[in-house]
Amino acid sequence: MTSNGTPFQRLALLASETPRAQEAHAALLAQGEWVPVAEADAVVVLGGDGFMLQTLHAMIDTGRVIPAYGMNLGTVGFLMNRYDRRAAIAARVAKARRWTIAPLRVEAVTQNGETHEFCAINEISLLRETRQTAKIEVTVGDRVRISELVCDGVLVATPAGSTAYNLSANGPILPLDSKMLALTPISPFRPRRWRGAILPDRMRIVLRVLDPAKRPVAAVADQKELRDIAEVRLEIAQDMQLTLLFDKGQSLEERIVAEQFVTG
How many angstroms from the chain centroid is the CA of residue 69? Predict the structure, then answer.
């Protein structure tokens, strides 16, 4: 869509494959002239949080990252705005406020020695593959902090992802501008009293799988999964900024704050 007199002259439109998103896509097509993502200044994303993450990852993979304005046609919609088919979409995007987030840069090594590099916007989780608990060595900075964490798994979450799987695992909610990461165990058995850590996002984290032949572990980063992991090295990608657009009063920062007061 072309939009004269707004910060975004050319808008692209993407929709998930769900019936609701496809119906909304058809309704919005008539509002103007849309352009391909490769030619756009911003992209309107119709769907849920999962499709928004998929869209952001696709832009990272192409090396061309533009602001994304989501409209919720999924379930939770934490990264999205309210959908209203009657509103002029170009005007909403023009008035939207920008929030930037930085993903995790992940380097995962499998048991056969293969190295895979990718990004995680919400979190990366190491999860046991069998009935055997996982045993993981945790290094933060240049020091081994836990020599043997016995657990179902462990995850590292960004502030943007701290209200997702991290919160379900009893991890802390992080303010968007906190420059912190949440390191959260999943059903920890030993050390019994360790419930996780909040770490400065400038620190490098290394998670090394102990006894991987007997206790195999998979790594899951947003929607990507790798099995039979030997070691994962990760740090915040300070040089990579992703921009989300929100309507007034619907910012990601406000939602993170509000989530801490949910009582039911």
Answer: 15
Average confidence (pLDDT) over 238-254: 85
pLDDT in tens, 196-208: 999 999 999 999 9
The CATH code that applies to domain 104-236 is: 2.60.200.30
Superfamily of domain 11-102+241-259: Probable inorganic polyphosphate/atp-NAD kinase; domain 1 (3.40.50.10330)
How far is CA 113 from each of CA 58, 137, 213, rounded to the nearest angstrom? 26, 18, 14
Quick one: pLDDT at residue 264? 63
Residue type for position 200: P
Tell me the one-letter amino acid at 26: A
* 49 annotated active-site: yes
Residue 155's identity, in one-letter code, is L
Look at the pTM and tell me if it is higher than 0.90: no
Catalytic residue among 41, 49, 61, 247: 49
